[in-house]
Amino acid sequence: MMLCEWRDFQTDTETYTQADFEELVNDEFEAMMFEDDEQIPAYVWTTNYVCLIKKGTRMIADISVTKIPRNPYCA
């Protein structure tokens, strides 16, 4: 499900608000996508990046964020 409005999500250790996420990635939110019935988004689009959200595999629920430039410069 694609959303153009922020929906807060949480792990076992942290709750992510729009302001928290924008500070984490140092960019402004544009959209997010949830797969199936997941409570944590799979992707978050910001002005300059597509952020891949991966759930951690430890005993506690945690995430990692990988930022990929939306418009990479190829010289």
β-strand number: 7
Could you list the spans in which at least 5 consecutive residues all have pLDDT below 50?
none
| Whole-number mean pLDDT | 91
Radius of gyration: 13 Å
Tell me the series of helices and strands, N- to C-terminal.
EEEHEEEE
Major sheet: arrangement of strands:
1-4-5-6-7
- Strand content is 35-45%
| Helix coverage percent | 10-25%
Alpha-beta classification: mainly beta
**So how many helices?**
1
For the termini, the CA-CA separation is: 35 Å
Q: Which of globular, elongated, flat, extended, rod-shaped describes the shape? A: globular
Largest sheet composition: 5 strands, antiparallel
Structural account:
- The chain has one helix at 18-25; strands at residues 2-3, 9-10, 15-16, 29-33, 43-46, 49-55, 63-69.
- The protein is mainly beta.
- The strands form 2 sheets. The chain has a 5-stranded antiparallel sheet, with helices on one face.
- Strand 5 and strand 6 (49-55) form a beta hairpin.
- The termini are far apart.
- The model has no long low-confidence stretch (mean pLDDT 91).
